[in-house]
Structures are given as C-alpha cells and as structure tokens.
Design brief:
The complex is a heterodimer. Chain A is an alpha/beta fold. Chain A has 9 helices and 10 strands. In chain B, the strands form 2 sheets. In chain B, strands 6-7-8-3-9-10 form a 6-stranded mixed beta sheet, with helices on both faces. Chain B is an alpha/beta fold. The chains are: A alpha/beta, B alpha/beta.
C-alpha cells in the first residue's frame, strides 16, 4: 500500500437496479494508487472492473438505475461528494480514459487532429499554439509525420494507429491518472507489445499513474507494479505483481493464471476454473 | 493422396477500383501463392497478424470468395472448380465457426431455429420430433441444457454463444471445420473451456480442423501442424513443437517474442 496515495478508494459499492432485478456489481472494495504507480485490475468479464473505473470520475448512470456509495479520495477531496462542476474539471483533465475500441473515444466524422485540438482547448485553455501541441501529442505516441497524419480521419488509420491516436488524445491534457480499460485486447500481439511499451514510456515521461484493466494476466507482468484481482464484485487478492504472479494465494487467482495456454508447455488439456470450488 | 484437404498455389487478389469507370488500378494480394495439406483427424493452425490473409484462405475453401488462381482439393475432388450444385454436399462436410458468435447467429432466431436450420437443409428426411431430439442432444454435447432451446442469442454470454455456434456446426455431422478466430474474443478463462470442448468433439467425431488465430500460444497448444502467414504468403510451416523450439523465419520469431511469458504454477 503506497504512503500518501494519489487516489484512495474506500468501501466502493455500485448497484444496478431495474424493475425486476438488483445487481450488486461492486460490493464494497478498497484500493489505492500511488504517484507514478501502475495498478492492474484483473478479472473475468462482468467482475466489475469497468464500472469501478468509471466510478472514479462518476461516469455511471444516475440513480435510481445505478447507485454509488463509498469514498474516492483524490488530491485531498472526496470525489463522491464534490459538485458536478468540480467533477468536470477532473474528468478527462485529471483522470483520462482509453478503451478497447478506439471508436468509443474517436468520432468518425472529425479528423484525429481536430479532436485532439478540441480536447486541449477544453482542458488546457492556457495553451496558445494548439496545433503545435496536437502535433507533439501525436509525435509522442509514435505516429510518424504527425504534421501530415493529424488530418487523417479514424478510418484512414489501422487499429494500432487508432489506439495510438486515442492515447494521444487522452494524454494531450496531461492527466494525473490514465485509466486503460482493456486497451490491447483487440490488437495483434506485436502491436499489443508496442502499445504497452508506449504507455510505460509515457508514464515515466509525464509522471502520471496508470490503472490497467484486463482479463488477461499475461500482459501485467513487467508492466504493473501492483495488481488487484476482482471476482464477482469483490477483490479476492491484491499485492505486488511479482508476488501475486509467483505465489498466488486465492484459488481464483491461481485458476485465472493457469487457464492461459503457455508456449511450449505441451498440455493435454487446458485447466479451467472450477467455479463450484470457489 | 492421404490428405483430407489440399490447397495448391492459392491466390486471391482483390481489385482496388478507382475513378468513375471503376477500373481496377491495382490489387490487394490477400493470398499470394499458398500451398498446404491437412491430414484427416489433425489440426492445422494458421497464424499471422491481422490483414495477413488468414480469413481469405478459409473463405476461399468454402467458396465465400473466388480464387484468382490455384485449386482446393477435398480428398480427390477439385472443389474450387465445382458449380454450386456440385458443391452442395461439401457445404455439409465443411463447416465454419466464426469469431463473433453474436454476429454470426441470427438474433431473431431461437437456439432451436439456429441449430435446426442446417439440419432442415442437409437432413430433410428428419421428422420435427427427431430434429428436436437431435437439437437437445447437441446442446447437451456442447455443455448447454436442452432447456435453452427456446431462448435467443442475446440471453447468452459470449462463451455460451460460441457453444451454440459449435452445436450448429456439429449438427450436420461435418468432417472438417474451419475455426476462424473462434476463441479470440473470449476471456482467457472461457477460451480455455471452448478450446477443451473443440478438442473433445474432435476426438469424439474424428474431426479435422483448420484453426485460424492470431495468438500463437493458442495455436501452438491446439495444433499438430502450424502455418505462419505474413502478407499473403506462408513464411513457415512446421510442427507445433518445432515452431516453438526452433523457429526458422524471423517473422515467426517476432511473433514468439511478442507473447508475454507466463510463470508456470500448479493449481487451478
Ligand atoms: N450501464 C449498466 N447498466 C446495468 N448494468 C450494468 C451496466 N454496466 C455494467 N453493468 C453490470 O455490472 C456488472 C459489472 O460490469 P463491468 O464492470 O462492465 O464488468 P467487467 O468490466 O469486469 O467485464 C455486470 O454484471 C454488468 O452487467
Ligand atoms: N472482400 C474484400 N475486398 C477487398 N479487400 C479485402 C477483402 N477481404 C479481405 N481483403 C483484404 O485482404 C487482406 C487479407 O484480409 P484477411 O484475409 O481478412 O486477413 P486476416 O484474416 O489475416 O486478418 C487485407 O488487406 C484485407 O483488407
Ligand atoms: Mg469491462
Ligand atoms: Mg481474419
């Protein structure tokens, strides 16, 4: 647990309600994130990773469809109690998001450069040469000849390039925390490796913290400092990445690591998770 | 010839059309001179990055695209030169399972309809009751319950929808199944279940697989033989053991290097 963390979440509960059902999606979890630290949230689909991430800047649907409780301490305030106006200063500017699908962030009708420029104008009104800032952002994420590519529309870019452009947009506002929700799940392994390297480099360069959300333990090694494992809305295990990977304690963590096919392992059958034993 | 399927010098070029006369100014060489064989009862893995031409090979085999050049032999028949009528029996023998079960399953059809449709086409002699029994048996086979018959695809998780896709493919008693990124969109935990299921039904029905994926660790696990594809060409063909232990082509090594190494732990 880092001392004097940048972000500290306590007893976070998220419940979705519809006319005939109540879904306690997150059941009172706590975790913290240090300055310059990378935290991974690992778990299967539906375990509550994305809603936890969205809760951090209160991006979930309003009550009664979704109720939220607990504490989210960020830079000396509890985001659970601040006004909508203050929240708007946090979203995108302090806590920025990237998603699996670039289409979730990039608008197909505007050029990539235009969209990054809009984000900079909104969050950093002090910037006078916005165009130069856009080009720098694209350059930062490794897009070649940014002064030409910034006119590209999303569909003119490959999946890996779109992912880079989305990262450029998220980072152009110099956030304190980058939340990356399954950022490489849809990408080829070689591109995945490049994007993870890129995020690692930018984290150091920009002195920010990262929350990486994934269902795959395979990508956290060497990337995340610490990790938490979520199962059905609860944290079942947390610790340093090395510790958890080399000596997982919870049966669910062990199962989630064991089910990944390993190169050269020559397994007859893959191990699967025995949910009845959990 | 011992091979169940043989692809000889397959080329699939897509024209890039330009101008008001839609003249082909150039071609995307999606598949550019590919040859391989698949022995009956084995799994051949086809791996490569997106855009390398993997799906186009699968589509050319089942004639969803026309080859520009080359032939596909199924046992001794050149199936690339058959007309639709003559190809019909091969539509039963060769099945395909796709990545996104939701897109490939008709959302307005119940599970019974989805699995029953190919049965009606290829086994018209079955009575309604016999068809119902067969659907129930297939659902059990893939780890679902016969009670699921009257539900719709959106009522299932991604893994369950992939099980429905497998049941549909199995319904017509195929010999050969092309799995195109069939497990790529699934969580690792669900992926493991589906891979095991595919291997179970392969053993049970002596199926032959062409298993297409971009994940080399999955390919190495499931395949007897591996084809590595880059930009429309096969750059390496070898047994799964050799691909891992002794990769020859630099591109294969690049793919191997990009895969995160996982600690091997006991448990699960
Ligand atoms: N907007 C929403 N409305 C209703 N339920 C939701 C909504 N978003 C998520 N949920 C539910 O919350 C739970 C956790 O979802 P999520 O955080 O997206 O899981 P993960 O990201 O771990 O796959 C799931 O049961 C999901 O169905
Ligand atoms: N119907 C089509 N028309 C034009 N180009 C196509 C068509 N289908 C595929 N391609 C192109 O052929 C190449 C190979 O595609 P594909 O076989 O889908 O690759 P993979 O399955 O390995 O990702 C890509 O450049 C793709 O854009
Ligand atoms: Mg999610
Ligand atoms: Mg494909």
């Amino acid at each position: 647990m880092p001392e004097n963390p940048l972000l500290e979440v306590k007893d976070l509960r998220i419940t979705f309600r519809s006319r005939d059902s109540v879904n306690p999606a997150v059941k009172g979890i706590e975790f913290s994130l240090g300055r310059g630290e990378t935290l991974a949230i690992v778990g299967e689909s539906g375990s509550g990773k994305s809603v936890t991430a969205l809760a951090l800047s209160r991006l979930l649907p309003p009550p009664p469809a979704c109720t939220l409780s607990g504490e989210i301490h960020f830079r000396g305030r509890d985001l659970m109690t601040v006004t909508e106006k203050e929240l708007r200063r946090v979203r995108g500017k302090q806590i920025a998001y990237i998603f699996q699908e670039p289409s979730a962030s990039l608008n197909p009708f505007f050029s990539v450069g235009h969209q990054i420029a809009e984000a900079i104008r909104l969050h950093r009104p002090e910037v006078s040469d916005v165009r130069a800032e856009v080009i720098e952002a694209l350059d930062l994420v490794g897009i070649q000849r940014p002064e030409i590519r910034f006119r590209d529309y999303p569909h003119q870019m490959s999946g890996g390039m779109q992912q880079r452009a989305m990262i450029a947009m998220a980072l152009s506002c110099h956030p304190r925390i980058l939340v990356a929700d399954e950022p490489t799940t849809a990408l080829d392994v070689t591109i995945q490796a490049q994007i993870l390297d890129l995020m690692q480099r930018l984290k150091e360069q920009l002195e920010m913290s990262i929350i990486l959300i994934t269902h795959n333990f395979g990508i956290v090694d060497g990337f995340a400092d610490r990790l938490i494992v979520m199962y059905r809305g609860d944290i079942v295990e947390s610790g340093s990445t090395e510790e958890v990977l080399s000596d997982p304690q919870h049966p669910y963590t062990k199962a989630l690591i064991a089910c990944i096919p390993k190169l050269g392992a020559k397994q007859e059958r893959l191990l699967t998770i025995d949910y009845s034993a959990l | 010839m011992n091979a169940l399927l043989e692809v000889r010098n397959l080329k699939v070029y897509f024209p890039i059309e330009e101008g008001i006369f839609r003249r082909a100014t150039d071609y995307v060489r999606a598949v550019d001179g590919v040859s391989f064989e698949i022995e009956a009862g084995t799994t051949v893995g086809l791996v490569g990055e997106s855009g390398s031409g993997k799906s186009t090979i699968g589509k050319a085999i089942v004639r969803l695209v026309d080859p520009t050049e080359g032939e596909v032999y199924y046992r001794n028949d050149n199936i690339s030169s058959l007309d639709d009528r003559a190809f019909f029996p091969f539509r039963k023998k060769i099945q395909m399972i796709f990545q996104d079960p939701f897109n490939s399953l008709n959302p307005r059809m119940t599970v019974a309809g989805i699995i029953g449709e190919p049965l009606e086409i290829h086994f018209p002699e079955l009575s309604k009751r016999e068809r119902g029994e067969k659907i129930a048996q297939l659902l059990t086979e893939v780890g679902l319950s016969p009670d699921h018959m009257n539900r719709y695809p959106h009522q299932f998780s991604g893994g369950q929808r992939q099980r429905i896709g497998i049941a549909r493919a199995l319904s017509v008693e195929p010999e050969f199944i092309i799995c195109d990124e069939a497990v790529s969109a699934l969580d690792v935990s669900v992926q493991a279940q589906i891979i095991n299921l595919l291997q179970d039904v392969q053993r049970e029905y002596r199926l032959t697989y062409l298993f297409i994926a971009h994940d080399l660790a999955v390919i190495e696990h499931i395949s007897d033989f591996v084809l590595v594809m880059n930009r429309g060409k096969l750059v390496e063909t070898a047994t799964a053991e050799e691909i891992y232990a002794n990769p020859q082509d630099p591109y294969t090594r690049k793919l191997l290097d990009a895969i995160p190494r996982m600690p091997t732990i006991s448990g699960g």
